[in-house]
Prior knowledge:
alpha+beta, single chain, 6 helices
Amino acid sequence: FMSAASLIKPGGSLYLMVYHPKSEHGAPHGNAMRRKFHRLKTVEERLALVDSVTDRKWDNDLPLYHNVKNVARGVLGRPKGSKTGWLDLLEPFYNWVVPADVIRGWYHDAAFTKVEFLNENEKHKAAHHVLGTK
């Protein structure tokens, strides 16, 4: 962050997106699925797992409560996530999640005078979207 921030001139802005700590990216079940994804050997196996996760199929590698939630979501007709979104979650070996106070500290330490969390009022945040201006 500090390397990128040092390139911003006074009056300039820097947009940042990092995963929210309460998003799927940092959740225990997200990490369990990521481990499973990386144990698979072929692209076909990995894409089949993405299909399975997107379709909310029962998975014994997940906690019971998560599987029950998925069944309930299906019964209630709740929208599924996208395959692209799940691949984004599963493919990186690790997804960093960052609390808001840490992000504020980064911008402060880099001498940004205005920091705005663009999706502050979003009910279920997958990520922080932040715009800082020097």
